[in-house]
Design a protein that fits this description.
By secondary structure, this protein is of the alpha/beta class. It has nine helices and seven strands.
Length: 246
Amino acid sequence: MIGEKGGVGKTTTTYLLGATLGRVRGGSVLAWDNNEYKGTLGIRSLAAPSHDRTAIDLLRHVHDRPGQLSSADLIDFVRGQRDNKFDVLASQSLDGDSEVIDEQAFGLLHDTLSGSYRVIIVDTGNNSKAGTWQSAVAAADVLVLTTIVKEDSARTLASMADTLVAHGHEAKLRNAVTVMSHPSPTSHPDLEKRLTQHMGELTRKVVPVPFDVALDRGDVIDYDALSEQSREAWMEVTAAVAAGLR
């Protein structure tokens, strides 16, 4: 899940892709907040009953006990999402945290997590120059680009597509899925048409997602509260991503 702007649906897409995959295939799915500083996936997901550990805590554990981390150990670091049947690894949540997830840390965590999960959905920060952002793109089998139907978000998305090409990821861009979310009930059909046409030429699939009042508060995401139209749209997003893995 990549973007160069906040508020374009990266975290929501990460969570609902994880929830849809978890409900359809069941288990072995992780949504990982790979923001190098302070992400919001932990805020939007269900809390763990016994801990509030984050990726930084897991990184320290891996450093202290290299090669000794089992799937059972991860229970102490990830947050199970109950009926959604997937886990969340939150990013550090304190402004005062001095440690930062960098390129090397991403590689170490990715290798560790890949041993226990068959599907890992990575939510990035907004800085395409950050090592963790670039590492996530390099490791991805399918890129998911997110935007909302607004002019500034559309322009930022187009710029990010140019950034991917400039860094040698043109093939990944062609195989990518663009998720185009509506942030309010107000529609902008001309902009949506232009955005769909432009990103349809650059990426494999563009999937529109309707506005849903159940997501409007920015609180913990409740899959069961989504409208039927939303659930169908997120199923289409999930199917489009899965098609790129074949």
